[in-house]
Structure formats: C-alpha cells, structure tokens
Amino acid sequence: MQSDRTEEPTAAPTEAHAAEPAGEDPGGLALELLVHGVGGATPEEMLDDPRTVRITGDATAAVYRRTEDVDAEDRPGEYADKPIPEGYCWSHLTSGNSARALWLILLPFMVVNLAHWMRPAAQARHRAVRLHGLVVRLVALSLTVLLAAAACEVALDLVAWQCAGQPGCAREHSWLGFMAVDAQGGGWWSQPGRRIALAALVPTALIVLLWWLSHRTWSAYESQPPWRGQVAEDDPAAADRPALCLPGFWYGRRLVARLRAAHTAAGLLTIAAALAGAATRFDRKPGGSAWLDALGWANAVLIMAGGLWALYAVCRRGRKESEADEGGDRLTVRVLPLASASVLVLAALHAGWSRPGWGSSGELPGDEAFSVIAIAQGALVVALAATGVVLHRAAPVARTALCGLAAASVAMLACALGGVMSGGVAQWVADRLGGQGIGPPTVLTWQASTIPVLLVLLLVLLCGLLVRVHLRSRQLAAQVHQGYPGARADTPRSRRIGRAIARAALTDSAPAVVGAVAVLTLLLGAAAVLGTWLTGKTPGAAADGAPLVVDGFADCVQALGSWLIGAVFLLFLALGRRAYKDVSARRTIGILWDVGTFWPRAAHPFAPPCYAERAVPDLVWRMASWTQEREGGRIVLSGHSQGSVLAAAAVWQLDPVTRHQVALLTYGSPLERLYGRWFPAYFGPRPLGALHRELDCWRNLWRLTDPIGGAVRLPGAEHPEVDRGPLQDPLAYGRTTRRPLPAPLLGHSDFQADPAFDEERDGLLARLLTRRHRAGAGEREEGGEPSPETLPAQLSEDAEGEGAPA
After folding, report:
1. Given the DSSP bridges, would you call strands 62-66 and 634-640 parallel, antiparallel or unpaired?
2. Number of Cβ within a 10 Å radius of residue 734
3. Whose CB among 73, 321, 529, 679 lies 3.0–4.6 Å from 246's, allowing a Cys bridge?
4. Separation CA 569–CA 374 (nearest Å)
5. How far apart are CA 719 and CA 367, in angstroms?
6. Which residues of 20-97 form beta strands (DSSP E)?
7. CA angle, 225 as apex, 220 and 230 as ends, to 5°?
8. Could you tell me which residues come within 8 angstroms of residue 630 by beta carbon, excluding any fewer than 6 positions away?
C-alpha cells in the first residue's frame, strides 16, 4: 500500500538536524537514490516492497521510501553497513492523464526538436553552430505553417469551398445545409467568402489550442527554478565544462516564450493568407470592386509584415545557457500574436464582404502553397546537411551517427511525418465528403503515391537486416557456451542466446536505416513536386497514354498511396482514442515521449514538454539538500536506462561540494550507445570524459543482450575503470545446483538480479568513504570550493526566493 505522507521541504536544515551535536552523526549514512528508465515503474517495483511512502514531491514526480525506512536518519546505527534506498518516480511526467493522447498530433514537432540537439561536436565553429540552430528553427517554423495550411485545406477548401459549393454534396451532409447553394442562390452564408470566413474558425481554434497547450505544459513541467550552485572559478574542470553543466541549460523560459509567439503568429497569418488569397483572386478579375481590391492589397502587406516579424523572432537568437534565460522580449511575446490575430480578423471581414456573382468553382490555390512549403523544407534540409558536414569535419568524433548528417536526416523525417499527417487528414476528409470532383491538391496526391515505393524499398532494407541477424545468430550460437566455464553445449539454448545478442546489435544499425529513409524521402518528395509542376495532374492521369505497364503502375501507386495515407491518419486517431481510455496503451505511448522529450524545447515551442526540466532540478535539489544536512553523507545515484541519462544530467548540475559526496551507478545505459552517437555535442566522448573527471566514482554495467544500453567507452587510459561488462546473460547457461531451473534472458531489465550490481554499489560507497577520509575539510576549502558551512544558508536563500523544492 502506498501512502501520501510527505515531509517538510528540504531546502534548509530542519530544527531537529540543526540541533544535533556534530559528533552524534557518525558520518556513515549513505543513500541509494534509484531512478527508473523508460516505460516507468511504480515505487513498489523500484523499492521491492508493497509499502511505500512519498517523502517529497507531488503526484507528478516524487521521491519514495519503504515505510520502514522513513525515519532512517534517526536510526543511523541500523544503516551503518547498508544504504537507505529511495526511488525517484517520474513516469507521470510523460504518461499521466488521458489528455496525453492528444500529444500524438505533436509528433513531427517533437522529432524536429530532436534535430536541434543532434549537431556535431565542433564547439569552436561558433558561426556554424549558430547557423545549425537557425536552420533547424526554420524547419520547425515550416512545420507550423504546414499544419495551418493542412487545416485550411480541409476546412476552407474541401468543406466550405468545394463541398458546400456543390448542391449535391451539401445535401448529403445536413450540417452543411445552411451554407448550401441552391437554384435561388442560397442564404446569407452561401456566399463563398462568408463560408470560408466561417470555416476559418477551425484552423484558428487548432492554433489557439496549440498555443494554450504550450503555455500550460511549460507552467506545469518546465518552470522549475534551477539549482543555484555555481562552479568554483579555480575548479580544474571549469575550463572544459560541458553544456549540460551550465546553470541555464534546463531553464529556457525566454526562448520558449518568444518561439511560441512567433509560431502562433505564423499559424494565424497562414490562415489569413488563405482567406485573402481566395478573396483577392476574385477582386482582381474584370468587374471586381476597386476598394475591395485595395483592401486586399493592404491585407497582403500586413500579412507580409507580420510574417517578417515572426521570421525575425525565430532568427534573432537561440538558447542562452550560461545563465537562467528569464529575460523579456515582451513586445514580441505579447504584441505579435495579438497583431496577427487582428490581421486574421481583418482578412475574415474582407473575405466575408458581399460580392454578387462570386461562385466557388474548382479548388483554392493549394497546389502552389504546398509545393512552396515542400521546396522550402527540402532546401532547408540540404542546408542543414551541409552545415552538419562542415561541423563534423572541423571536429570529427568516432562513432558519430551518420557523420554529421543525423540532424538533417531527422529533420527530413519530421517533414515527412508532417506531410503524411497533412495528406492523410485531407484524403480522409475528401473520401468522407464523397462529392464529385472533391479531392486534395494534386501535390498531396503525388506525395501519397510515393509512399508505396518507399515502403517497398524499406522492406528490402529490412529483409537485408533480418538476413544479417540470422547469419550472426548462427555464428554466435556456436560460441556462447564458452563464456560459461564447465558448461556443455546445448544447441537450442545457444540459439536463443545468440538470437538475443544478434537482435540487440540491430540498434547499432539504426543510423544507416534512418539515413536511408531520409534520403529516399527527400528524393521521392522532389519527384512528387516535379510531377505536379510538369503534368498538373495526378499520377494516374499523368500516365494516360503511356505504355500499359507504366499506366497500370501509376494507377496502382496512386490508389494504394491514397489508401495508405488515409490509413495512417486513422491509425493515429485509433492510437489516440485507445490511449485516452487504456492506461497500458497510454504507458506505451509514454515510452516514445520518454525518449523524445528529454531535451528542452529549443526549436519548436509546440513540441511535447521536456520532462527533464522538472526531473533534473528535482534530483539536484534532493541530493544537495540531503548531503548538506548530514556531514559526511554519501549518495549512490543509481540510474537505469533513461534514468541513467537523467542521473548524469543531474550530476553535471551539482556544485563541487555535493559532487564529491555522490557516486554514479548506471546500468542498461544508452549514454554512449544512443546519446553519445546521436547527440555528440552533449554526450560525446569529450563531455562524458569530463563527467568522469569531475565525478571520479562512476561504474557502468552492460550486457550484450541489451538492445538499448551499452558500454560508456571513455577514451584513453585515464578512464579504464568505468565499464564492467559484458555481464553474463543469462546468469547460468544450464541447470545448476544453485539454479535448478533455466535462468531467463534478462536483456534490458532486472540488473539488480546480477551479483555485480550489489558489488559495484558497495564498492562505490566504500570508495566515497575512503576518499572522504583522505581529503580533509581543510584541503577542500584550499581548492577554492564553497565550504559546507555556507551551503545551508545558500539553500535557505534559494528556498525563500524561488519557493521550496519539489
């Protein structure tokens, strides 16, 4: 049973601790702070006890203890030879209530935000680094424009312009009856301009919803004040501090607010441009109203001015990490969205003005808009690829994913996801309306037709990977029993172990798969735009008159692509609906957010919120406040999987005094295997080496059967003692007297079952104690670091100024 009991905030020493004589605490108390990984874990699972108590935190993220350990500090003698176990549970940050299912529509935004952090590790090329961030922010802005354009295509073009303009289609859908055109002309809403002005409420509501979600989630997740501890100026590692050590890394309020204003304005101005484009196209025809035409020109100027302002807000500056970015930009944040909303209202009034003789025939100019967006995204991705190559060549790092092209590849996948979702909803709505001649723009049909081709190529690639796994597993099956002294070969057992190792190694092939998909997507997208421009027809119609094989292939890919893109959209809806009702499905989707939302929102403000901006300060505050209350207190920060990434990020944020009392134990850790390869500027060999130099007490456990975790691979002879592995998995090859039943393959889970876990944890605690005895308090103060006596006052001041820690 879990209790909700909480203790008082630990920002300053409690009276009980302050009153204790200095010699009463033996100085041997140790804390084991467990941090779970992807998918989450309950406090009962983490602490292996059905009775847990919440020590500090709230229902979203909190620290728990076993009931019997709540008052462990008052009984130090009972914990002289063992640590006090605590568990930090952060799973509700990514897979909490049912509203998280709506985050599926934010998937392209999350992916492009990842691209920002994938730049190569070339710190000295400042201009190229800034250009890299700028290009990613522009790609992110294009995704917002694409989303708004897709919403306009559905609401304004397919529904209000095409279907409501056809009496037959409008009669089949009674909810469109008040906008229908009949023999007498129809009612007040039947004029095309008024129909599209009313339909503009749908994309406007979508943009406002995204603005609200961004603002609300920032307040709930990312507004935690950072730890105020600073690095001593004469700290030997201060000159080579990784970015994650900087005090403002996990607090980018100013950038998120400015980008939120710019993207909101861009979305509203896209809707205004759709309204103005439809109205001015009629006004500029012979017989059109001169003053309405002049008002249309004025609208165009205002839309262009607002767009330039939004573009300037995006291009002006990136993240500021040297300190907490709490600055202003009030003019942009407050005025730009309101000004854009005013332009949208003016465009709606202009479009809704009475225009006798105006009829809605054909389609709105969607082909031009979507083609321009596709070309702009392709050009930006190519520019991002060129910048990445320059940065990688300036400071090449071994094992970097795609040699600097990772950011461009992931940005291309984000654009492809945005295109699939846009085309899917347009195709699905067009099919549901069912009117004669009603359909999405031609360019979207061409893009949908490339999906079957891409899937066939992907199938060939996956088949090659499966063959590789099969051959590798057969090779390993003849060797695995040799790792167990005295074991006799058991062919079925060896095959299972060999397959597990071979499948786990597929993770290292992910860069090649991502790169291949990105290149194919870019080429097929370019072919779709060229096909639209050269023929102006759908693929099937463009192939009329060609040889039968070509004509049949074109018809097949067009029909299959249209069906697939609609099916993908329905799949998103089904996943969202299931996640809204099913906790287990919501938890599965939460795993995606665990990996994708670790990083702060630096490129797209509408991306799902960064849980690390809450979790990292939580861990830092807990470790700093616990150690400063107990002279000689020691902490083993124990992180599994994604929890090891959070643990490393928290250690980077600690002040030197606290860091000397902390050891790091990671297991199933993707620090080097995934984060080091894909995010080399932040988790490459240089930052991880700096972390080890500053922390010293660090051990990492890994297995060959683990598809996620791996060795840290610190370079040079000065880091030989971090990794321990590969650990045996399974723990026993066959049946033994100690293990009479077959031992399971553990893979990525249950590292605590391995005896190496307890050995390394106890070894780290002993090492901390030995180092504390060797380095006296006088030596620590001579090193220029803050004296322990000053930390309680600092914590008290921070608690008064910023509020008590969570």
Report:
1. unpaired
2. 16
3. 321
4. 20
5. 57
6. 30-35, 52-57, 62-66, 84-89
7. 155
8. 17, 25, 27, 29, 73
pLDDT in tens, 226-251: 655 444 434 444 445 788 888 888 88
Residue 396 to residue 413: CA distance in whole angstroms: 24
| Cis preceding-peptide flag for 511 (omega within 30 of 0) | no
On the question of pLDDT at 651 being above 50, the answer is yes
| Mean pLDDT of the region 484-513 | 91
pLDDT in tens, 324-342: 666 667 888 889 999 999 9
The C-alpha atoms of residue 689 and residue 713 are separated, in whole angstroms, by: 9
The domain limits of the chain are 2-94+611-802
For 409, residues 6+ apart whose C-beta sits below 8 A from its C-beta are 402, 514, 515, 517, 518, 519
Task: Give the relative orientation of helices 336-352 and 192-199 as an angle to the nearest 10 degrees.
Answer: 150
**Would you state the structure tokens that stand for residue 82, as one six-digit string?**
């063992």
How many CA atoms does the CB half-sphere of 31 hold within 13 Å?
A: 30
Closest CA to 620 of 797, 801, 796, 795: 795
Other CB atoms closer than 10 Å to residue 755's CB: what's the count?
A: 10
pLDDT at 775: 59
Q: Which two tokens stand for residue 43?
A: 């406090």
> Whole-angstrom Cα distance, residue 180 to residue 173?
10
**Cα–chain center distance at 663:** 28
Nearest to 121 by CA among 804, 678, 736, 506: 678
Note whether 183 and 407 are within 8 A (CB): no
Q: 2-94+611-802 maps to which CATH number?
A: 3.40.50.1820
pLDDT of residue 12: 34
Q: Specify the range with the lowest mean pLDDT, choosing from 306-315, 628-637, 670-679.
A: 628-637
